Every structure is written in structure tokens, then in C-alpha cells.
Amino acid sequence: MTAWLIKIFLLCLLNAAAALFLSPLFEGIMRKLRAALHSRIGPPITQPYWDLLKLLGKEDLGSTGGVVYAGMPAITLGSVLLLAALVPMGAAAPLAFAGDLIVVLYVATMSSVLIMLVGFASASPYASIGSSREMMMLLSVEPILAIALSAGAFKAKTLALGGIVNWQVQNGPSISMAIGGVAFFLALQAVAGKLPFDIAEADQEIMGGSLVEQSGPRLALLRWAMWAKQLVFAFLLVEVFFPWPHFGTYLVDLVATTVKVLVVLVLVSVIDVVNPRLRIDQAMGYYMRVGVSSLAALAFAMIGK
Amino acid sequence: MSTIDQATVTRLKEAVAAHGDRALLSTTQPHADTLRFAIEKTAMRSVVVELVNNFQARFLISVGTDKRPVTGDFAILHLFSLDREHLYVLLESPVSEKDPRIESITEVIPGANWAEREFRDAIGVHPDGHPDPRRLLLADDWPEGVFPLRKDFPYNYQPPRAENVRPQMLKPPAGASVMPIGPFFPVLEEPAYWRMFVEGETVVGCDTRIFYNHRGIEKLGDSVLTYNEIPYLAERICGICGFIHSTCYCQAVEKAAGIEVPRRARYIRTIMLELERIHSHLLWLGIAGHIIGFETVLMQTWRIREPVMWLCEEISGNRKTYGMNTVGGLRRDLPNQIKPKLFETLAEVEKETIAVRNAIVGDTTLQARTKGVGVLTKEWAKKICVVGPPARASGVAIDARIDHPYAAYDEVPPRIATQEAGDTWARVLVRVAELLESIRLVREALSAMPPGPICAEIKEEIPPGRVGVSVVEAPRGEAVHFVLTGGDNRPYRWRVRAPTYPNLQAMPAMVAGANIADVPITLGSLDPCFSCTERLETIDRRTSEVRVYSHAELLEMSRSRARNGGIR
Questions:
Q1: Does pLDDT of B363 surpass 80?
Q2: Are both B474 and B566 inside the same structural domain?
């Protein structure tokens, strides 16, 4: 029993560490790509690590008080790391026994809600506009994630993520999961806060939105949480919707999955570079259409395609 | 020069005489295209109504002058342009020091709002019946009753600082909250304070306080500098279109003094003006992209722009602020051996600009953010007397290069681009079209440029009391310079009106009912240039605060304010 616990604990640590320490690297690659498309040289790929170090060493201006404000950044990052332990990243999810799809969806929402709360708690008009935009984006995107993942659950007849992945590996591509994957990918753009959907941050309109009053270590943790979140979601997308080819060897699978995640994030970056920011009403309209279309995934799943 | 229709001149004279009756003091024609009527101030408003209604006169600017040392009175002058007739009309009224008031014309021409407040602040002549007589350009801690442009006011006078002053801002309507944009804000390159009254994400009104950066330029021009020093100061009015202001000033003096500028100099001025338009429009396109988060456009257009800056450097020695203009012509020739390089660079810039245009025109997301956004109707554009691309994008086909040809534009006329929609997308299209047209103009002017001298020889002193009005079509719209010559080898009064001055006044009409997210791009689509607009007096509103509070105290104040519920 103890050995089992230790093993789970170590695996959890591994996933959390991957989310923590790989996410700045992926962010660095995305920045480099953006720069290339801008005709710029761009910062070194390791820049995000230095950014975090720098922010961690900076003064916390503490512009607002309160419990929510004080504890929020750490909890946000924690929620993302918990999500990392619930999501398969190259191997079965370490905490798979602890929760199914519904828990994953709840935990995935936590960080957005927490960022929203800190925005409302900081009493800046820009932050509260940012938070209300964040809420609207969350409400638009969340149903799409749920629908896409439910298509998998419907096909595999299980709510466990691991079960869905296994079913996918065994049964190969299907129409419903392809539609679900595309819908999930489109939602990922908003989850990662990338253009044209970085509306809740919108530097040029509301100066960073919910995070406008954050500084120093707090800002570092929140940024880190956001980078880790985009990485974990990319893993989720790849594992659930595109798990092939599956080699069965841990290391090879890990490398293959990581490469696929990189491809996904590169695509996200390219979309980010070639688009201006949408207005919140336009973005909601867009995700409304994506959501309705993604219902097709469920329909196909029902007729077994 | 374009031909002036003598029948119109006669008709104008008759109309003003009829309205003025005994109020008409004198009629003069200081220049072929400039008519000057001196009238009693009581008749001013009715003559203005007549001009606007029956002659489609477009208001340019008001000039308040302290003529007490000469005539014993202040003089208020309203400057109009009759675009189709290529005429300027000056209506001037003496205003006695004992009764320093004049009837406001803002009710007739909403675009005169700021101009009237400005002469009130600067000279102390009150516009009676002005709908919004708040302070405009003086700092909030500037004492009452001190008027910086009066002749008995020394240019280096510093009034005592006042504590705890705030701008007089309008109260938001009931139920609306305030979203501040500025005084410092990411998309504003210069300080400006906009208060957006919002309900949810919808703007229901706005108020503004600008003029944070006055530099006392006009005062320096009529008290410290000489005719030939001013071009360098004029060039520094703007960080982008400096050549436009120095050209405009020189032309005004040349007109007042009757100096004929050599043809080659006029061609080189045209070329430099158009090069400025090219790099300014590319710069704007990038900033517009940046405002809506489209950084790729910013990076690419600024890359395309860079070779133009290098060319300017090669021609003048500087990327910006060329120091080429002087009264009577130019100080520096455009060497003929640079021509091939100019053609080559222009071809490259044109190719890449067309590529950007094609990418933009096909971008549906971009259109979603700009179509129907910040609409300025033709009616409002005319009322506020908006100029430049914002006017042309609203279907008002005015362009100083056509209406009042200067430099070599009578020989290489531009084709002007207009749109009817009046939204941000229309302004994008107008500017892109102008950009390509400017490239063509530079090419044509380069090919047609004659040899010869570049500066007229000026033998006599410029006599006092002459008037010169000059306009130049800047990238942002038409810049106006007015010069009244004086003794001491310097102007008695030099008045500058930058294009952003009228254009910014259109903001309230453009953002009403808009979404907050659209406010930055709406403001950006005017291509505002605050340094141009703000030229007058220097006092930093904030210095008095900083003197009283330490940095730490200020920081603590702002934080405690945030903790106690923030800005409501």
C-alpha cells in the first residue's frame, strides 16, 4: 500500500514537474516563432525562464489587500498542477483513480475562476472589465470542451479519461472524435489566451485586465500558471483526440506525444500571429457557432461513427 | 497658381458689406487668394452665418492677437476656407480692452469650440454664449486673469504653483461609471486624458482633458526667435510631420512678404512632403494594427517604412527633422545622384505596400474590428470641420493640395481618395490609397524636377503688418499657419493649427454608443498627434503634487485609494 502511494506520489510529481518546467520552454518556442513571422530576431528560447526568475525577485507592490488577493496566485498555479496530475501526459494520468472527466472539467475551470476573482478583488476598473470578459469567455468555451470530451465518453462508454484514451488507441480514428478534436482545438486558442481571443487581457484596451494590479512573485506565479495551463490542455487534446501512433513503449510514446503537443502549440501561435483581437461579443458569437457545430460530434457518436 | 474667380470675390464683398452695413470697417486683399474683412464685433456672428450658409465656408481656426501696442485693441480673427473657390476669408474684429468679449460662433460652427476657448485662455477675450466655456489649454493651476499671449506677458514668466487643483471634468450621466483612458495609456504615445462614461461595455458619453504638454511655441515665435529661426522650431512641433510645419510656416511668411520661391525648391518641398506622408501612413498602419492586437502588421509596416527613413537621412542628414526649409526656399539641395536610389527604394516600398494592402483587404477578422466602428457621418464631419483622411473617409472631398495648391502641386496634382462609409475601415482604405498615390507623386515630381536655384534672394526687410495664410496637407490632415508680420525681424503673431486639433473634437460623436473595445481603435483611426495640437504654454499639472508628496506617499495614496473601492 505504502509503495503504491509513493509511486503515485512520484508520478504526480513527474507530471507537475513537466508542466512546471517544460511550459516556459514551449512558451519560449512560441515567442521565437512569433518573432520569425514578425521579421524579428526575437528573444532567446530560454527567455520565459529568465522572465519568471526576474519577476520572482521583484517587489510585490501589494496594491490590494484581502484573503482572495493574497492566496490566489499560489492556488491558481496549484490548480493547474492538480490538473496536470489528472491528465495523461505521455503515460496514464497518475491521479486517474481519483477523478473522471467531470473532475477534470471542474479543475480545469478553477484557474480561470480564480483569475477572475483576483480581478474583481483588485478594484481597478480595468481589472473588473477584464474579469467580466474572462467570465464571458469561460461561459462560451466551457460547453465546447464538455461536448468534445463527452463525445469520447459516449464512444468509450466510460467517464474515465484513461478509458477514453485506451478506447481511442484500440479503435482508431472516427468522425465524431475528429469533430470533437477540431472543436477542442478551436477552444484551446481561448483557453491559452491567444489572439484573436486574448480579450480578457487586451493590453491596448484594458491594460492587462484581471492581472493589471499584479506584480512581482504574484505575477510570476500567475504567468507560470497560464503557460502551464496551455501546455496541459495541449496534452489533453493530443492524448484524448489524437493518441495515434501508440507504440506501447513509455519513452517513445512520451517523445511522440511531446512532438504532437509542440505541433499543436505552433498552430496556436500561427493563428495568434495572423489575427487581430476580436471584440467580446464577436468572440462569443464565434464560440456559439463552434459549440453548436460540435454537437455534431455527439450526434455521430450516437450513431457509432 | 489656381485661378481665383473674380465674380466670387465681388459677390463675397457685396454679401459681407450688406450684412455688415455700417459695421464693415475695411476690405483688403492681402494676397490674390486671401480676402480680409475688418468688421465690428457686433456683426461678426451674422457675417459668419452668411459665409457658412451661402458660401459653404469651412472654418479653419480663430486667431486672437493682442494689438494693443499698435491699435489699442485686441483683435479676434476667424479664418475660413472657400475650398471650391480656392479662397481664404479672414474676418477680423477689434475688441476693446474695456469690454473684452465677443459673440461666440460655436453655436453656428461646432468646430469652433476649442478655437474660441483657446483665445479666451491665451488673450482673455471671452466668447459670449459659448456652450462649454471650461479651460482648454492652460494648466489647471494657472492663475485666473493671466493671459500668456498678451504682449505685456514675458515669455519666461512662471506663475506661482497652486496646490490641489483638478481639471474641471463633466459628471458622468446617472447610472454610468467612468473608465479612464489616460493621461497615460498603452495606445496613447502622448499624454491625453479621456473619461469614457460606460454602462457595462457600452460608451454613453465622454469627456476629455488634453494640453498636458504645452511648449509655448507660438509665444517663442513672436517674442524670442526671428523669421529664419522659427522654421527649426516649427519643425519640432511634430515628431512625425516636422517638414510639414516648417514648410507651412515658410509659405505663410513668403506669402506675407511676397517672396517668389524658385521652382526647384517647390519641387523638392513636394518630394519631402510626400516622403513624410509615406512614412507617416506606414507608421499609422502599424499602430492601428497594434491597437487591435495585430502586431504582425506593426512589425511588417515598420520594416517597410525603415528604408524611407534611411533615404530621408541620406538626403538631409537626419531621419527626421531635416532642417532643410528656410524662408524663401531651401538650405539644402536634393542631389541628383540620389535619384536612382530613390526610384529603387520607392519601387520596393510600393511592392511591399501592395502586398500588405492585399493581405489587409482579404482579412475578415480585421474588417470585423473596423467596419462600422467609430462612424463619423458626413454631416458631423462638416460640422466639426474635420480634415484629412477622416474627412475624406466620410465623403468630404477636401485636400489642401487641390483646394489651395502650394509647392509644386499645381504641376503634379494628386488624385485624392474618398470613401463614403466614414468608419475606421474607410479610413484605413483612404490612407492605404494615399500611401500608394504619394509614391506615384514622388516619382512624378522627381522626373519633372527642374534644375536651378533652391533659394530666393531676399534683399529687403519684411515689412510689418502683412498677413500670410498657408495650408499644407499633412498626413493627418490640413495644417494651417497664419503669420502677421511685425518689426524686429520676427512675426507679430504666428498661429499654428495642426490637423489633430479639429479631428480630436470629433471623438465624442464617434464613440457615442460604441463598445469600450472599439474606443482605442476609434481614437487611433484619427491618427492623433498630441504634440502638434499642444503648442502653447508650459506648466506640468503634476509637478506641484510631486513637490508636496514624496514618491512613497503618492504610492501609498494610490494604493489606499484602490483598496477603498478604486475609481468610481
A1: yes
A2: no
CA A113 to chain CA centroid, Å, is 14
What residue numbers bound the domain in which A65 lies? 2-302
Interface of A with B in 119-178 (CB under 8 A): 122-126, 129
Residues of A with CB below 8 A from B293's CB?
195-196, 198, 202-204, 276-277
Would you say residue B383 lies in a domain?
Answer: yes
What pLDDT score was predicted for residue B208?
A: 85
B294 with A276: Cβ contact below 8 A: yes
Distance to chain B for A280, nearest Cα, Å: 8
Closest approach of A23 to chain B, Cα-based (Å): 23
Helical pair B242-257 and B263-291, crossing angle rounded to 10 deg: 150
Is B159 contained in some domain? no
Q: Is residue B320 located within the same domain as residue B438? A: yes
Q: Are residue B482 and residue B560 in the same domain, yes or no?
A: no
B486 shares a domain with B471: yes
Q: Read off the pLDDT of each residue in A240-263 and give the average, rounded to a whole number.
A: 87
- Checking if the pLDDT of A65 tops 70, the result is no
- R_g of chain B, CA atoms, integer Å: 23
Determine the pLDDT at residue A227: 93
Q: Could you tell me the CATH number of the domain that includes residue B64?
A: 3.30.460.80
Q: DSSP secondary-structure letter at B319?
A: S
On whether both B558 and B529 belong to a single domain, the answer is no
B555 compared with A45, residue with greater pLDDT = A45
pTM, to two decimals = 0.86
Largest Cα separation within chain A, whole Å, is: 58
Which CATH number fits the domain that encloses residue B497?
Answer: 1.10.645.10
Number of domains in chain B: 3
Residues B400 and B545 in one domain: no
Beta bridge partners of B194: B181, B208
Residues in chain A, overall count: 305
Nearest to A38 among B293, B299, B558 (CB): B299
Select from B153, B170, B194 the last residue of a domain. B153
Number of residues written out for chain B = 568
Domain limits at B558?
Answer: 538-568
Taking the CA of residue B237 and the nearest CA in chain A, the distance in Å comes to 26
Summary mean pLDDT of chain B: 86
Q: How many CB pairs under 8 A join A and B?
A: 97
Cross-chain Cβ contact A124/B566 below 8 Å: yes
Task: Show the cell assigned to A283.
Answer: 468572440
Are B501 and B533 within 8 A, CB to CB? yes
Instruction: Assess A87–B contact: CB distance below 8 Å, yes or no.
Output: no
Within 8 A of B365 by CB-CB distance, chain A residues are 196, 275-276, 278
Give residue B227's pLDDT band: very low, low, confident or very high (50, 70, 90). very high
Nearest to B299 among A39, A63, A282 (CB): A39
Shortest Cα–Cα distance, A230 to chain B (Å)? 20
From chain A, the residues in CB contact with B555 under 8 A are 61
The ipTM value here is: 0.81
Nearest to A39 among B179, B300, B366 (CB): B300
Q: Which of B186, B201, B555 sits opposite A203 (nearest CB)?
A: B186
User: Which residue in chain A is spatially nearest to B522 when comparing CA positions?
Assistant: A205
Confidence (pLDDT) at B552:
60
Give the phi and the psi of residue A211 in degrees, each rounded to 5: -90, 5
pLDDT in tens, B327-352: 999 999 999 899 999 999 999 999 99
- What residues in B contact A61, CB-CB < 8 Å? 555, 559
Q: Are residues B145 and B236 both part of a single domain?
A: no
| CA nearest neighbour of B470 among B259, B190, B301, B292 | B259
Which of B136, B153, B170 delimits the end of a domain?
A: B153
Mean pLDDT of B26-47: 90
Average pLDDT over residues A269-290: 89
Tell whether B137 and B227 lie within a shared domain. Answer: no
A137-196 residue pLDDT tens: 999 999 999 999 999 898 888 888 888 888 888 888 888 899 999 999 999 999 988 888
Q: Could you tell me where the DSSP H helices lie in B317-423?
A: 339-361, 364-370, 378-383, 388-393, 400-403
